[in-house]
Every structure is written in structure tokens, then in C-alpha cells.
Backbone:
């Protein structure tokens, strides 16, 4: 059974600080997605990583994928309050858009 | 483009009842996947429909069934509701033969009492 683990589960950080969220998965895959979810809302796509070594950046967020280590990271630079949300990584097996989601990381940015 | 739309947004059902949730995919998409997200958890894959047939299924009992219509819209049916079925149900649409990310709807929040 595919397992997708994120850490930390909860993250409280001050504005302006940097931090990294880790996503480990248990089977071979080169397709990894990051989503953001605000309370009571649906999933917003952040990044799609489709090959080993892929790196994507958008604003204060940067995601990377190491398929050999089965590891993806989401790095937050100079956090701001608007980044407070829950972040999920999801692994896709084959190309069927069937996602296996991580446990989520609840991020709170404190002014 | 209305994106992925789901209905109803919220509903309350009693244990033992049956519920039907609906999803209209993003324009041009032909594949619909359903996910269950319990409070504080990540979404879990229920099943996926393409060409009006169940293409893949996650680890959910037969009480969970679905349907896809010729216009690609889809329904999720849950019979004999249990308290543990209370969750946010998310629909995702995509194109089966094109490498792309899925687009999620806003979800249907089901509360079983």
C-alpha cells in the first residue's frame, strides 16, 4: 500500500522566517503535486512536478522533487500571514490522475 | 468556464439513509474522480469514472457507488450511511489521455447524525 507522509503535521512560524515541509512516499513515482487548502475550502493546485530534479517556484514558495529519494520539499521563504493554510502533497501513480495524498501540514504564520 | 461544480454544498443525513452527490466536470474534461476527506485528514481516493465506467477504485466498501453520464457529469451514491461517512466529498475532473493536473470542485460536506 502506498504511503505518503508529510512532516511536520503542524507548523507555526513567524512572519519573515523560512521553513521547509517534507513529503516522503513509499513507492516509485515521478509525479508529485502540491495543493493548498484553506479552512472549509477545496484544493488549490500549487505545483506539478513531473520528473526527477524538478524545481518550481511561485512567489514565496518553491517545490522540488527527488524521485530517487522518494522525497519532495516545499520551501517557504520569508513567510507572510496569507500563507497560513493546510498544504498537501499528492503522489500520482501511472497517469490516471489517481492521487494518494499526504497527511497535510497545517501552517500558521504569526505576525 | 464554470470549472468543476458540485452539489449540494452541505447536507445532513440520518444513519441508514442514502445520499447522492453530484459533480459537473470542467468543460472539456472527460474523467471524474471522487475523494473523501475526513476532518483533519488528507483526501482519500474513492473511485474514478471514464467513458461511463468505473476505471479505478480505492479501498471503499460497496456501499459507495457511482455513475457517469454521457455528458461526463457524475454522481456518487452512498447507501446505509454510517456516522463515519461524515466528511467533505471532493470531485476532481481531468483528461484521461493528457498529462495534466486535476481540477477540484468546492466539495460537498456530508454530516451523518
Residues:
Amino acid at each position: 500500500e502506498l504511503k505518503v507522509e508529510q512532516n511536520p503535521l503542524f507548523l507555526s512560524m513567524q512572519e519573515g522566517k523560512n521553513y521547509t515541509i517534507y513529503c516522503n512516499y513509499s513507492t516509485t513515482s515521478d509525479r508529485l503535486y502540491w495543493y493548498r487548502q484553506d479552512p472549509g475550502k477545496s484544493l488549490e493546485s500549487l505545483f506539478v512536478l513531473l520528473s526527477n530534479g524538478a524545481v518550481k517556484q511561485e512567489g514565496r514558495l518553491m517545490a522540488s522533487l527527488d524521485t530517487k529519494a522518494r522525497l519532495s520539499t516545499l520551501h517557504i521563504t520569508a513567510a507572510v500571514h496569507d500563507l497560513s493554510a493546510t498544504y498537501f502533497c499528492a503522489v500520482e501513480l501511472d497517469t490516471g490522475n489517481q492521487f494518494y495524498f499526504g497527511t497535510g501540514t497545517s501552517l500558521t504564520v504569526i505576525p | 468556464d464554470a470549472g468543476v461544480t458540485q452539489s449540494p454544498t452541505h447536507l445532513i443525513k440520518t444513519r441508514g439513509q442514502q445520499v447522492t452527490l453530484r459533480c459537473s466536470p470542467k468543460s472539456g474534461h472527460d474523467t471524474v474522480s471522487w475523494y473523501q476527506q475526513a476532518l483533519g485528514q488528507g483526501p482519500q481516493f474513492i473511485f474514478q469514472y471514464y467513458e461511463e465506467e468505473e476505471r479505478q477504485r480505492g479501498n471503499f466498501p460497496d456501499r459507495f457507488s457511482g455513475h457517469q453520464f454521457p455528458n461526463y457529469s457524475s454522481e456518487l451514491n452512498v447507501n446505509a450511511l454510517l456516522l463515519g461517512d461524515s466528511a467533505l466529498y471532493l470531485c476532481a475532473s481531468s483528461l484521461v489521455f493528457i498529462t495534466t493536473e486535476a481540477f477540484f470542485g468546492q466539495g460537498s460536506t456530508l454530516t451523518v447524525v
The first strand of chain B starts at residue 5 and ends at 7. Chain B has a mean pLDDT of 93.
